[in-house]
Amino acid sequence: MRRNALRVEPCDIANGRHPIYNWIDNLLQNGKAIPPDTMSASLAAWILRAAVAEGANKRELIFAMGLDETRLRNPLSRISAQVALRLLKTLQTYFNDPAVHLRLGDKAAMQNFSDFGYVTRLELDLASVIRANVRIQPLRQNMVRTTFHADGKPPFFTWDYPPGLVQSYASFVELSVMNFARLSRQLLNEPPVLQAVHFQHQPQFGRAVYDAAFGCPVEFGMPQTRLEIAGRQVFRPSPFANQALLDAESDRYALPAKWMFAGKTQLAFSYFYLTSELDKSPPTLDRMAASFGMSERTLRRKLVDEGMSFRDLLDLVRKDLCRLYFIEGTRSLGEIALLLGYGDLSAFTRAYKNWTGTPPSRR
């Protein structure tokens, strides 16, 4: 696993327009900044969280995989395709279920703004949410490429990957197909209305398991991996659509994008790290330094050299996320406190009063 030197090129920053997905394009640098055939550590962590929700012991899984839990905390770290496939095989063995990846793919969901993909649910309808997820997919993984054809009758997805990897990538592709199929359950609170599922590979277990998982007949040995979904579902408005909140989340990434463009990459990486880590473990400088593979002293110096201390950066990330949760307006103060990495509500209240002069209860 390694962290790559990502660079940002000027795009919409100069004219004031910088949607969240443009920042992803900058991170990708047309595919040059990220090694091919890799998966992000954040996606691996997301799969592990889904497994833990199913009753798995996270530390046992990480030990069995030989993964570095510290590096998994860095959302810009990458793991190789070989390790990603081994992760799924380990899960199948752990649960004694060769189809466990389908169950995990169906149930896993983004829960809050610490997950980068959570913002996609704010799009207008399911089709827009799907497009957004397709656009950010290369940042999550570039082992396979998904394309969404919204103008199809019915709308359909296709998955592309080297012919020589068809069977070895079977579990990973099935997980990816299920991930996109389950968006309707996450957004619309209803099962996906699938018309057909085609896989290039041969079945890995009984066909009845596939038919039950996808709710429609599944064909194998087909020329292309393809998923067809009912148009009436694809273009149904999302109950989570929120343009103001989507704009606020997009604006939040303007500053780290400017940092990257100015060569302040450590500030940008650290902002990204803290965003993803706040709700999972105590945000400390030594923990973050370890995830970047450097000493605490080195990271402290790099941050100060680029214009901000760790404490000030942590404060900024918390304030930015706090604003989003208040705009969202669906969470209690206690939940927001935990999501921002505070041990209790009183600590969050003190911090908020320092930011604004008033307690959060009077916002």
How would you characterize this protein structure?
This protein has 363 residues and is an alpha+beta fold. The protein has two domains: 2-234, H-NOX domain (Alpha-Beta Complex); 264-362, Arc Repressor Mutant, subunit A. It is built from 19 helices and eight strands. It has helices at 20-28, 41-53, 58-65, 69-72, 81-94, 100-107, 126-140, 170-181, 183-188, 207-214, 231-234, 243-252, 254-261, 265-277, 285-291, 296-305, 310-328, 333-339, 345-356; strands at 2-3, 38-40, 77-80, 145-149, 156-160, 194-198, 218-219, 225-229. The N and C termini lie far apart (43 Å). The model is unreliable at 1-18 (pLDDT under 50).
CATH superfamily of the largest domain: H-NOX domain
Model regions low in confidence, pLDDT < 50 over at least 5 residues: 1-18
- How large is the count of helical segments? 19
Class by alpha and beta content: alpha+beta
Percent of residues in helices: 40-55%
How many runs of DSSP E, i.e. beta strands? 8
Please identify the top-level CATH class of the largest domain: Alpha Beta
Question: What is the average of the pLDDT values?
Answer: 88
Short overview:
The protein is α+β, with helices and mostly antiparallel strands and 363 residues long. The chain is built from 19 helices and 8 strands.
Q: Which keywords apply here?
A:
disordered N terminus; H-NOX domain; 5-stranded mixed sheet; 52% helix; alpha+beta; Arc Repressor Mutant, subunit A; 363 residues; 3-stranded antiparallel sheet
